[in-house]
Design brief:
It holds the Pfam family Acylphosphatase. With 288 residues, the protein is an alpha+beta fold. The chain has four helices and five strands, in the order βαββαββαα. It has a five-stranded mixed sheet, covered by helices on one side.
């Protein structure tokens, strides 16, 4: 007989492994009913589980795949499948129940297995929370270092301002000296007025003085150019200073936002843990 995916078949499936006392039969019944498979599942004295299923071969194979990937605490080691002709005797898929006391013991064992898995997952979650808290501590340490560096930057900026004040003082001194030079030039002009009476004798000296004055004017022009350069550099310094202040403001905002996010995350995780612990205590009947 050639079996196709559309033809009905009868499959006797024997599953070995950790499949009794872990809720395996209920898992098989739920999967079979969802797939439209009819038959039954029962425990064997050997510790294995027997499944008789009637449906299309495609659905039976899907049921076998689901059994292979059954979740913990179920552990499937080996599956044996034997096909035969269907009898049509089943109207649904059910669990064959034998001794009531044995079923109750198996039910308690199943519950204990799931509690054990739940406790293991909670332990893993607590380990991850500890790791998260450690990383948050490292973040706080790095933030403290950032604040220290910002303090150092502020100190250097204060030094820059002090030097700028010194530069302004020196410029004031330069202006004062230029005023003195102008006063002296006025005195020179007065003397030149007095020396007009002896122009013939002083022409040569006046020519010399004019040459020196030209040199003085050139030096003044050079001084003015340097002052212009100083002003340009001061403008650049002011622009960079403004840019540094803007970046510091952005950094402060980011740090504040990060602290708020971290605080909210910790409070939310603690609330979840307390709620999970309360639910576990309630299920276990523990008060206090």
């Amino acid at each position: 007989m050639v079996l196709t995916a559309e033809a009905l078949v009868r499959a006797e499936i024997v599953v070995e492994g950790d499949v009794q006392g872990v809720g395996f039969r209920y898992f098989v019944r739920r999967a079979a009913r969802r797939l439209g498979v009819k038959g039954f599942v029962e425990n064997l004295e050997s510790g294995a589980v027997k499944i008789v299923a009637e449906a299309s071969k495609e659905r039976v194979e899907k049921l076998v795949e689901k059994i292979k990937s059954a979740p913990p605490p179920i552990a499937v080691d080996e599956i044996t499948v034997t096909y035969s002709k269907p009898t049509g005797e089943f109207k649904t898929f059910k669990i064959v129940v034998k001794d009531l006391a044995e079923e109750m013991v198996e039910g308690f064992a199943t519950g204990a297995s799931y509690f054990e898995i739940m406790f293991e997952k909670q332990d893993k979650a607590l380990v991850k929370l500890d790791t998260l808290i450690e990383r948050q501590d490292l973040m706080l340490v790095k933030q403290d270092l950032m604040l220290q560096k910002q303090d150092q930057m502020l100190g250097k900026m204060d030094l820059m301002l002090e030097k700028q004040d010194l530069m302004l003082e020196k410029q004031d001194q330069m202006l004062h000296k230029q005023d003195q030079m102008l006063e002296k030039m006025d005195v020179t002009l007065e003397k030149q007025g007095q020396m007009l009476l002896t122009q013939d004798q002083m022409l040569l000296k006046q020519d010399q003085m004019l040459g020196k004055m030209d040199i003085m004017l050139e030096k003044q022009d050079s001084t003015l150019q340097k002052q212009d350069q100083m002003l340009s550099k001061m403008d650049l310094m002011v622009e960079k200073h403004d840019e540094m202040l803007e970046r510091q403001d952005m950094l402060v905002d980011e740090v504040k936002g990060l602290r708020r996010d971290v605080s909210f995350l910790i409070e939310d995780r603690i609330t979840r843990i307390e709620r999970d612990v309360a639910e576990i205590k309630a299920r276990l009947g523990i008060t206090g």
